[in-house]
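Fold this sequence, please.
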Amino acid sequence: MAPIIVLNVAEKPSVARSLAQVFSSTPGSRPNHNHQHGSGPAQISEVQNVMFPALYQQGSGRPVPNNVPNEPHTMITTAVRGHLASQGKDSIYY
């Protein structure tokens, strides 16, 4: 089975960099330097083999049992740029 791919979108580039550092520092993880762009319009980081419980078990509202094995995840991290402004019912991203 292929690893689960998770896209993390942070509110700021500095938060995205911090997330990527955390994922890269987990035991057994492998940063993909081919998909790491530190400057430019879109900062994207990819870290493979980040181990934690299956995504399908998370967010179910029930605790993940201790005996559930960790699975490899590919974590792709980026950030939005610009500001979100609210005007009445509509939100505008610029």
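The mean pLDDT is 78. The first strand starts at residue 4 and ends at 10.
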